[in-house]
Amino acid sequence: SSVGHMGFVLLGIATMTPTGVNGALFANIAHGLITGLLFFLVGAIKDRYGTADLDTLAGATGAALYGRAPRLGALLAFAAVASLGLPGLAGFWGEMLTLFGAYSPAEGLSRPAFRTFMAIGAFGTLLTAAYMLIVVRRVCMGEHTPHSQLSPGAPPTQPADASRTSGPAGAPTATTPQLADIQSYEAAAWTPLAALTVLAGLWPAVLLGLTDPAVQKLLAGGKS
């Protein structure tokens, strides 16, 4: 997702328009908030399960992250939909403004080329939505695959490495064990990121009001 977000930043700057450059700055800030939150969450899941591999998690979650650690699952789903650019969250505005800037780039730049880049960027948002929703479905909602290592109500098989396939404490259980949900120290670090993601999505004018004067001056060659 970081590569995709930085692609929008580069496209916005390349348009050399106030709309595009403001979109690039907005996308950069949104990326810091959303991707920072995603890295926190992936680290928390890996700390609990010992892996971040989707195939392993899809089997290990069993009853799904929503059922085992509902707050952690809900926050992961929130960060995923924010990253794919859902309207009303911070990820939307940077991408939208960048695409608008690419539709009508600065004078002297090739409109057909930038509109091609715009189409590629729009297609990229669909790919981002696809893989983010796959993560949510497989990790948060659960997916009982044939190689599932923990299934609700099913007796566990004895693996070669019990710490990788059993409950969080390493002891196999007959039912899917409950997983540690968000801890207080985690909430203290993650809540500001989630709150700013919502605020930037609902009130983008606050951030754009800070960046636009500098952008206008920059594009005017430093003249007031």
Key features of this structure:
224 residues; single chain; mainly alpha; elongated; 10 helices
Your description of this structure?
With 224 residues, the chain is mainly α. The chain has one domain. The longest helix has 32 residues. The radius of gyration is 21 Å and the shape is elongated.
In terms of topology, how is this protein built?
Blueprint: H1 2-15, H2 18-49, H3 54-60, H4 65-68, H5 70-83, H6 90-103, H7 111-140, H8 162-165, H9 184-202, H10 204-219
Brief rundown of the structure:
The chain has ten helices and no strands. It is mainly α. The protein has one domain (2-50, 66-131, 178-219).
Secondary-structure element order, N to C: HHHHHHHHHH
Beta fraction? under 5%
| Helix-and-strand structural type | mainly alpha
Largest sheet: none
Q: Based on DSSP secondary structure assignment, what is the total number of beta strands?
A: 0
Radius of gyration: 21 Å
Number of domains: 1
SS field, number of helical segments: 10
Poorly predicted tracts of residues: 144-175
Helix residue percentage: 55-70%
Separation of termini? 37 Å
